[in-house]
Amino acid sequence: MPFPTAEEKLAMIKVVPPEADELRCVYALGQGEYEVGFERTNNILDEAMEVFTRSSRSSMGVAGDSMVALFTAQGDLANASCGTYLHAVIQPIIIKYILKQYGKNPGIKEGDVWFTNDALYGGIHNPDELILIPVFYQGELIAWTGAAVHTSETGAIEPGGMPVTATSRFSEGMNCPPIKIGEKGEIREDFLEMIGIFGMRAPQMVVIDLKARATGADRARKRLVELADERGRDYVVGLLRKMLLVAEEGARKRISSWPDGDFTCVNFADSAGIEMGLLRTSHLTLRKKGDHLTFDFTGISPETPYSYNAHVQAVVGHISNFVYEYIFHDLPISSAAFAPIDFVFPPNTCLNPDARAATSCSVMIATGVMSGVHNAFGKMMYCTQEMWRQVSASQGNAGNATVVAGLSQWGLPFADMPAYSLNSEGQGGRPTMDGVNAFGFPWCVYGRTPDVEEMENDLPVIIPLSNHWVDSCGHGKYRGGVGTVQIWVTHHAPAIYFMAISDNSKMQTPQPLFGGYAPATVPGISVRGADIMQKMAEGGEFALDAMKILAEQTVSGDWQYEFFGRSVRPYNLGDIITFGFATGGAGYGDPLDRDPELVMQDIKDKIISEWSAENVYKVTYEAATMRLDEAATAAARDAERAARLGRGRSYQEFEAEWLTMKPDDSLLRFYGTWPDAEMVAPVFRP
Amino acid sequence: MGRRVAITEYLDVDIDEMKWLCSACGAQLIDADDNYKKGCLVHARDPREVHNPVFEAEYNFAPDPAWVRIIEFYCPECGVQVETEYLPLGHPVTHDIDLDVAALRARVDGGELTIVDKRMEVSR
């Protein structure tokens, strides 16, 4: 079986050295031609992305959890439009695999359509499906285009594409290696039938999404051919290679400007699948020397027996989200930006598991990495004039995903992971301002949160309220943005199936930055036999205020509190299926440094509670008038600083006692040896 | 007093004296090639003191102290909260910033970098 090893996949991310002909084309570009051409590719990609999003059917497709990209003939990413940066750096692995394995049989021809969703060969996880199309001009392969989006169903043992009880790739439904699914510009009907039957819980979604990918990628192909018609073959070849050169040069120059050193962050999760247990999901040492970076993940927990694992390139995909959002935002979205970057992933770990491992929840195990890069880069870049404003505490990065499935009010089978509330997490606090409230989805920065009415029209649910989630942010001098809370009720159908994916119910993954605090934890809460619909019909004093409903149980019924991650189960008409929680961002700086007037405004805006104002920010005010008492606040803060000096112990004294402690053994089933997280025994996967 | 570079919101490095300093009060914490956390006062905090649980249940909005504590690092002079870290009980504290201060100073002395308002700028 020639599936690529972890080392081969990491090597395939690196750019193929330019051929003499490509360099000739680069040198032939006239003054200004690159800049104009670069912008032309942005326009081509934006048009293709718009076509792609409008053609998609599943929630993630409609929300824009997608990317359209241009590649060189050798498969290196030159530029892209998104959506999400997740797919940016890793698609070259798949193109290079196709070129190497299938160049002769079945061959790569004009009009081909290639497909894969198998993370073993280079993707994120199997709900992320990809179409690649070779671009031929006058019989010569001059480029590739690609379109990727998360789809709603893979035929796994649970609905929604991210089964939490999967114990190996054999229980994840369709994992399709790179394969030619179309010729002469047409997708084969037999493949459409196959993907439809794997997605029979939601066939209209998976088939339409597949066609949307092909439509998006082909629109980019068509425009690139038009560009070659207009400006010549050499212009296109030179333009694509020049984008790689500019991206690499820009990346090296920026990295060079930062201080040398090792910058480390450690992150944890509280579960794998539906079992609670501590995991060291990231132990990142970011090593910077000269114009080179190494991401060293030595010290992460062993691979898990569930789907909370990620193949190495999927981890790189998650890193690229941060890289393109915060530090290389002004460079072409090109894999060449990763030329000066290397990775260390110890084998048989949760970030480099065995080939048979389940990885459909790779996006969950990668939350530690997503959070850790914020801290490690923040501690490296804060001292630079160019980049200090780009420092940010971690986004929410909880990804409390919910899946609903069944028969809709329209009689259609469905299985979907709604982008609402998922796409309304908070951003992390920053050196000069708070994080944005409900900014979006950390995995997909340009994805949108759909309208409630759109969701209710599509699915047999009603969402009576959606509020900012009070105190969900990490507190700090500049607090994280808060996330949101919703109530989901079964509606217009006798029952609905539900499951949820999470790993932050007992402790949070994000670490705060520079003295701030982390966001809130996320409980799983449902109410069977709830009377919320009756209360809404009656009106009266019932308030659609999530925090009041939670604090005072103003809805009657059987309240259940559990881990947010839940395997699939039914809920009846009128039940509160779940409270949906989108986590807030992490806090930045000492909360005692926060402007007290901002604290007062946050109370008035229902962003933070009076409890937090008193206990965390030490702000005093007159309750009747909500007027700040500056003198009392200053005194309370002085008293708290004095209290810190009283309770704080020397590092030596603290460590002597602290290192004698250990979590209960029942919490360490996934962790590995304590505290080094070495493997205890290999995972058994029959 | 030597040339200072701001490394975090509350930490400067004096690249001449080779010391970590509290930027809030100027107190010297420890040698620059050591872990600045060793120069701080340290306290392991019950997370329920900082995170509002809102309601009493096994699962709520506050982290579980059986799983995690908030390690707070304070300046020993002024009490500013320099850094925090959420760690399981007994997990080693992270040496998060291991800066090559000698290399940094050499780049400043060599003219490659200029210090402007305690931050580095690539010299033109």
Query: How many beta-strand elements of chain A?
Result: 24
Q: Radius of gyration of chain A in whole Å, from Cα?
A: 25 Å
Distance between the termini of chain A: 19 Å
Query: What strand order characterises the main sheet of chain B?
Result: 1-2-3-4
Shape field of chain A: globular
The biggest sheet of chain A, with number of strands, parallel, antiparallel or mixed sense and barrel status, is: 7 strands, antiparallel
Q: Report low-confidence residues of chain B grouped into runs of 5 or more.
A: none
* Proportion of strand residues of chain B: 35-45%
Number of strands of chain B: 10
Output mean pLDDT of chain B.
Answer: 97
Number of helices of chain A: 19
Taken as a percent bin, the fraction of beta residues of chain A is 15-25%
Quaternary state of the chains: heterodimer
**How many angstroms does the end-to-end distance of chain B come to?**
27 Å
Radius of gyration of chain B: 18 Å
Percent helix of chain B, as a range, is under 10%
Shape annotation of chain B? elongated
Sequence of strands across the biggest β-sheet of chain A: 2-1-5-4-3-6-7
Please identify the structural class of chain A as seen in this structure.
alpha+beta
> Could you tell me which chain pair has the largest interface and how many residues each side has?
A-B, 84 and 69 residues
Task: Give a short synopsis of this structure.
The complex is a heterodimer of chains A (686) and B (124). Chain A has 686 residues and is of the alpha+beta class. Chain A contains 19 helices and 24 strands.
